[in-house]
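Hi Y.,

Following your request, here is the sequence exactly as I used it, all 245 residues.
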Amino acid sequence: MPAGHILGSCQIVMEYGGIRAVVSGDYKRSADPTCAPFEVVTCDLFVTEATFGLPVFKHEPADSEARRLIASIKTNPDRTHLLGVYGLGKCQRMIALVRREGYDAPIYLHGALRALCDLYLSLGCGLGDLRDASGAAQDELKGALVLCPPSAVTDRWSRRMSDPVTAFASGWMRVKGRAKQRGVELPLIVSDHADWPELLQTIEDTGAAEIWVTHGREDALVHQIGKMGRIGRALALVGFEDEGD
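Below is the corresponding structure, written out as C-alpha cells. Let me know if you'd prefer a different format.
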C-alpha cells in the first residue's frame, strides 16, 4: 500500500491466522505532487517510523514553504538561490512544489541530482525546464534557483554562484540550531516524513492495539502510545539513526 514518502514508497501488509500487521517504512501524510498519498490500513500491529518522534516537530505546509522560496527569489533578483536537497524524493518534490506555485523559470541542477530527476521524468512526473548548473555561465545563474546536495551548498562547487542565498529543505530546519550550524539563510521546513501530530493521527487511524516504533525518537513516542491506551515497543534496528531529511 502507498506510503506517501517518495515515488514508489510503500507499506507492507502481512496477514496470518486472522492477524494483520502493517510495516510502514518511511511515510508522510501531507500532500506530495510526485507520489501516491499514504493510505491507512487498519491492523492489529503497526510498525511505525519515528524520525520526527518528538512534540517539537510540526512541519509547515509544504506549499507555503515553496511560496516563501519563490518570494525570496523575487525579492533578491541579483542573488542565486542555492537550495540544498536530498537527491531522492526531496529534490523532485521541491521542484514540483515551486512549479505548482507558478515558478516556470529554468531550474538548475548539480550533476549529482540529474539522474534521479531524469528517472522521475521517465516515470511521468513533470518537472519543467531543468538545466545543468555546471555548464551555465555565472551571469545565467544570477537570480536563478539552483538545487544541489546539502554537502555542496558550502563547498568549492558553490563559489561560482552570484552572492547566493543559501537554503535547505528539511524537517530538521524546525530546529534553529541546526539551520545556524549549517549556515542556512533561508530554512524551509519541508519533510518527507510524518511529523509528531501525523504520527499520532496515523496510530489512531490504524486502530492497532500494538505499535512497534523504529528509526528515530522511539522513547518519546512509545511513552505517548502508552498514554493512548495502546502497547508500544521500541524496535531497535542496527545501523539506523538520524537520517538527513
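The radius of gyration is 19 Å.

Thanks again,
Q.
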